[in-house]
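Technical annex, item 7. During the second reporting period the consortium partners agreed on a shared format for inverse folding records so that results from different sites could be compared directly. Each record opens with the tokenized structure and is followed by the designed sequence. A conforming record, contributed by the partner at site C, is shown below for reference.
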């Protein structure tokens, strides 16, 4: 299916240009407002990010809270670290080091699986 604009056809059943125009608007807004430069090497990652933003755009929950809930569902072992980083539930004196903590937890998880 396609739309023939030269024949003054703008909608053909479920096919129309509004969908792709909104995608381009989100990509342009991200390029102009956030990144100012997108390398060809990482272009699929930028497109994936903006696809996620477009699909989640009508949600009233803050983005970091949504990401935290996704991480906690996928990696329950990291739930405490996610809560500490996002919601500031860390105990007094605790310094959040995501790379070190994640590596340590993953190493411990792999060690438990191999036993």
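Designed sequence (site C submission):
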């Amino acid at each position: 299916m396609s739309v023939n604009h030269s024949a003054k056809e703008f909608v053909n059943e479920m096919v129309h240009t509004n969908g792709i125009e909104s995608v381009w608007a989100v990509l342009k807004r991200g390029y102009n407002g956030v990144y100012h430069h997108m390398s060809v090497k990482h272009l699929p990652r930028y497109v994936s990010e903006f696809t996620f933003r477009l699909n989640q755009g009508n949600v009233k929950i803050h983005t970091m809270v949504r990401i935290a809930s996704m991480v906690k569902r996928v990696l329950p072992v990291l739930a405490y670290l996610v809560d500490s980083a996002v919601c500031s539930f860390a105990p007094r004196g605790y310094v959040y080091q995501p790379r070190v903590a994640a590596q340590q937890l993953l190493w411990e998880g792999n060690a438990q699986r191999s036993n």
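The mean pLDDT is 66. The CA atoms of residues 6 and 24 lie 22 Å apart. All partners now use this format for quarterly exchanges.
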